[in-house]
Each structure stands twice: as C-alpha cells, then as structure tokens.
Amino acid sequence: MTAGLLGSDVPLADGHDLALVDLDGVAYHGHLPIEHASASLVGARERGLRLLFVTNNASREPEDVAEQLSGLDIPTAPDEVMTAAQACAALLRTRLEPGASVLVVGGRGLVTAVEQAGFRLASGADDAPDAVAQGFAPELGWSDLAEAAYAVAGGAWHVASNRDLSLPTARGFAPGNGALVAAVVAATGVEPDSAGKPAPTMYRLAVERVGAERPLVIGDRLDTDLAGARAGGYPGLHVLTGVSSARDAVLASPDLRPHYVGADLRALLEPHPLPEPAADGWWRCGDRGARVVDGILEADREGPQGIDLVRAACAAAWAAADEGVTLEPSGVPRITV
C-alpha cells in the first residue's frame, strides 16, 4: 500500500465495510463527548458501515465500554468492543494451551479475558507461571511489578497488553502501561511481546471476528492507531480531535503516516480528494496548496486553512522527505482546521 495519502471519490463509510474505531480522542474525551462523533458514527452505521471499537485500554470490561458509548448517544453492544485485554489473551493462546498458568498484572478486564481464554490464574511468581500478562490498572504498585519481574526472570513469557508510554487524563498525561512495562524490562532485560497497538494484532482479530473485507482504521494517535494500520496493511483515517495534530501528520515518518486525514469523524461521511502535484513543486488539494523549499514548508497564505491545506501539506512534505530532503520541524507551521 502506498506510503502517501489515498483519495476517495465516495464517502469513506460507503467504501468500507468495517470501521475499527479508537476511543479516547476519537469517540470521546475521557467522559465527555466529542463534537460530531455521535452523529457521524450513527450516520455511518445507517450507510451500512459496521463499527468495532478497538482500545489499548486493558483494564475495562467490554460491557463497561459499551455502556459509556451508549450513554454518549453512540449505541454499542459489548461484542462491538475489542480491548487490548482480549487481544492479550488471544496472543497467549498462540503459544500456550488452555489450563496453562498465567500471572495477571493488571485490572479486572485483563483478569476476565485471561480466564475466559481458559488459563489458570497464578497468585505470584512462586507459582512458576507459564506467562505474565501485564496491563494497566491505576492501583498497580511496586509489589505487583516486582512479582512480574520475578516471574519473567524465572522464565515466564512476558506479554504486554500494550506499550503506550502515556495515558491521557483530565489533568494531563500520566504514565501509561508502557511505562510500567519498562520497569519490568529494566529489572529483567527481557523485551515482552505486545498485543496492543501499534502491533496490528487487535486489528487482525477484529477483522476476523467480523469477517470484514474492506476495513478502515480510525484513530487520533499516529504512534499507535495509525502505526498499527500501516503495520497491518489497513488504510487508516487520522482524525484531528485527539493527541496527534495536523503538524504531526505533516512531519510523520512513512511508518506513521495516515492514509486519510479528517478534522473529525464527519470525515467518514465525506469524499477525500487526492492531492496532486502542480507547477514549481506545489501540491494542491482543492484550492489549497503547499510545497517544500530548502527544507521549509510553504503553504498558501491566502484564504482559510482547513483540511485541504493539511492534505496538500502532507503530500508536499512526504514527497520531499521520500526524495531525501530533510524537512525542518521549525519550518512547518501550525495548520488549523
């Protein structure tokens, strides 16, 4: 699949049969709704697009996630949610038989997923578990990480639900599961396998669950959601309602680049024009244009900015980078949508 943007003459909801939708930063912010999210997702469903919400959060049960979404006017059933806990349990099944012993270091959602996969729960490293399944839970402490380290050092297979270093909260970014996993890695020197994004495991499991043929990944983070899309060979839509900005997309390396960019989830209900090269190094999308000159991104100064300018800027920056031009981050302006 191309490392550049893709175009679509029809709304994305009409060109795909399944949307793999991230949660925080896409469907909601914490406990607050995101403008246009409910109407856009409901409208996409009405066009025949199936939705499956895919989250790196391993501490919550699918039923809890579905209840929260439904409370935000995005009607959702538990089987329309896939968590990193479920992906972690599925990854364990690739090497371990049911009945194997697993030390769970994480929240209730991970405990449930491991149990439902047929594994026995170990109480600590002294039980000589076959594996350690590690996921985020705010109540985890030093003793929990120590038990994980003892077990891994003793030969247990270390599987992380995800390796997100940060976790968005109402007060800002807090240490995520990746930071806690790093503590175990520092103590043992053993790198774990990871089930969550940016590994494409969850996307693959979700596509298999539904039997989709034309899936679309939707996310707000380039380093997890869109990197996972690239790694799995799935087209990805980057919505600018969460962590990664339009400027981040312009500066993205090939393994993090989205295939589509939208201001918000209304992008599901819209066509996506493909930027085209023009004279003097310009790339144009609609009536917006951008080019790179001596490592500096130049953008149209006349008229509003908007999402077409983001698309043109991505095309210009990526083409220059792929030709070996070093793009100066300080030379990429902030683009509003």
Summed up:
The chain is α/β, with parallel strands linked by helices and 337 residues long. Helices cover 32% and strands 20% of the residues. It has three domains: 12-56 and 199-269, HAD superfamily/HAD-like (Rossmann fold); 85-194, HAD superfamily/HAD-like (Rossmann fold, 3-Layer(aba) Sandwich), CATH 3.40.50; 276-331, no CATH class.
Number of helices: 11
Mean pLDDT: 94
Number of domains: 3
Helix content: 25-40%
Specify the CATH architecture of the largest domain.
3-Layer(aba) Sandwich
> Which superfamily, in CATH terms, is the homologous superfamily of the largest domain?
HAD superfamily/HAD-like
- The global form is globular
Low-confidence stretches: none
* Series of secondary-structure elements, N-terminal to C-terminal: HEEEHEHEHEHEEHEEEHEHEHEHEEEEEH
| Secondary-structure class | alpha/beta
CATH topology of the largest domain: Rossmann fold
Which strand order spans the largest sheet, edge to edge or round the barrel?
5-4-1-13-14-15
SSE map:
Blueprint (H helix, E strand, L loop, with lengths): L11 H4 L2 E4 L6 E2 L2 E2 L3 H10 L3 E6 L6 H10 L9 E3 H10 L7 E5 L2 H9 L3 E2 L9 E4 L7 H12 L3 E4 L5 E4 L2 E4 L1 H12 L4 E2 L6 H10 L4 E5 L2 H11 L3 E4 L6 H5 L9 E3 L13 E2 L5 E3 L2 E6 L2 E4 L7 H16 L15
Parallel strand pairs: 1-4, 1-13, 4-5, 6-7, 6-8, 8-9, 9-12, 13-14, 14-15
Antiparallel strand pairs: 2-3, 10-11, 16-17, 17-18, 18-19
